[in-house]
Amino acid sequence: MNDPVPTTCMRCAVGCGHLTGRVDSGYGIDGVRGDVAHPTNRGLACSRGIDETQNPDGEWLTRPHVRQEGELRRTTWDVALSRIVDEFSDALDRNRDGLAVLGSGQQTNEAAYALGKLARGGFGTRHYDANTTLCMASAVTAYNDAFGSDAPPPTYDDVEDATTHVVWGANPAVAHPVLFRWIVESATDGESRLIVVDPVETKTAKAGDRHVAPEPGTDLALARAVLARVIERGEVDEAFVEEATTGFGALRAELPDPESAAATAGVSLATVEALVDALRDPTLVYWGMGVNQSAQGTDTAGALIDLCLATGNMGPGSGPFSLTGQANSMGTRVCSSKGSWPGMRSFEDPAERRTIAEAWGVPVERLPDDPGPGPVGICEAIGDGPVEALWAVATNPAAGLPDASAARERLRETFLVVQDAFHTDTTELADVVLPAATWGESDGTAMNMERRISRVRPASDLAPAVRTDLDIITSIGEALVPGLFPATEPEAVFDEFAALTAGTDADCSGVSYDRLREERAVRWPAPSAKSAGGYRYHDDGDWSFRTPSGRARFSTGTHAGVPEPTDESYPLTLTTGRESDGYNTGIRSRDGDAASAVVARVNPDTVERLNGEAESAGEASPADEGEAGEAETGEKAAIAADETACLTSRRGSIPVRVTVDTAVPAGTVWLPIHRGATNELTLPVTDPRSDEPNYKQCAVALEPTTDGVAAEEQARTKPTADD
Ligand code: SF4
Residue 222 sits in a domain of what CATH number? Predict the structure, then answer.
């Protein structure tokens, strides 16, 4: 490896340090390996992080483009930026909320900070958010509710000290390989154990000591059943609850009886008892998208925090630990002014708004006083609201938003600017495309899921017509809001951000590029050049939460039913999940088969039941030996393994290739999140507190394709319950 450059893997939020090599000539990366000097991973790395850093599969953007006469055509940066400035100015002149901005957990802290400064302080728009709201917003809201502050209390240091590891609605074996290795190492030590709660028997569940499989969308019912049984069995940590919490009485009054809540979740009371038993030992409760991406995601994340509070599982080796997906999702929370001001200052607090306005040199009345409706609401504000122009930075809403066809129709109606390193589903709709640098080419920092800040350094020069996110953002900002960016270099922008966090919960003011050069990575809060964060809220030995009372707050949410139950027309439940090598909406990991049907995993009992029902109704001619495709033209065949079928929800229909898999429960269909087609089907219902979409559950129908008729065409003609 030539002249290795220490940097941070931007593939996932574990935040491993990498060493990347420079190519002898041209652009690109020559070799990647784990950095033994990095305190996060001490040399460990996963093949996915290495492969996608070195050789991503995506189609690179190398030139700016503008749409002319209906076609995207190559252009110069001057032409592209001038078109953007004209259109954005017009939109802002009519209504400050008429310009929408979507950022990403893939940006560096510096770019995220600059984009938020421009969107909120320069444009003054409510319609600004990031794709991190699609993943982590429910956890953020639940942390703020419980602790008065965002981010998990534990760190990676606590993993080896835990006795019980409960992984709830997450698949770290696939999504966070290095962290999962630490969890498994700890869970196989002596009396330790790994319990996995997931409707699907994932790779993580297969590695666990116990797999608990609730019905999709019933996690809250299960969490409440466990807590109700904790109380019935007298397992509450009364001393901790008395000393350090409020609201336990109100929660207790709302709890269901454990038997009925367990039945709602589709699990036995014995399973609930096993979870109660496990919580007696020091327990880390990890959770992911299976919890957050729900119409009741905030309530469910809150219920998992409640389990930790009630059982005294707070403190080293225990506690609630949300697993962040995108590499810099935490940085977006701390830097980007998306749902809180830099340093996680409260959006609603007038004093905090004045502080920010003064620091940025903008009128305080320009700063919006609420954080806006989230990405789904922003998209709905095209056509149904004031949004006339939308700027998407390192995000792919055309594939990533639920009910993607409807989202695409709206995106077509607006002046759309897409800034990205790769061709995406959204660039196809854009009026202007800006080619941006990606990791390996960018300079800055990122924050991992345990609050550690680490440098991101370029190992490759930029291709001639490619510019960094920070450069593009500050250039557009300088043209529209002169003087907003006195600092435009990454280090100076970081220093500006860090100074704004002084005295806040997320104090990064003791972190500098010089310090990061010495230490590789520093965990916040770090209020001085020598300090670094550890387990939160009890640094001085006493519990001190950031709520007005100084105590942690229990929540009271209870299961309210799934937002789209199955019925006669849509008898199956769709759920979604990650594949090992899939990258978010697949932009960096598509292997050339994007046009092929999405793989749908289905339990063999489901296939048998559907075929049996169709046969009894006289609608199908099951083919011999489970083989499909033998029906005569125009006649329906049976659903069969490795054959194409048609999957339909109330939003749309897609062809899928059926894979029979006993890991998926009967009555459920599993699709990968990495294919844009998946979101043709998903439900645009969001959690009312966090604005996070309910990606994990909706009702669908699976039918055999009719020979000679495209699956989409066949399904669109299918009568729906709403017809
Ligand atoms: S675990 Fe995540 S951060 Fe670490 S090397 Fe793998 S992809 Fe990169």
Answer: 3.40.228.10
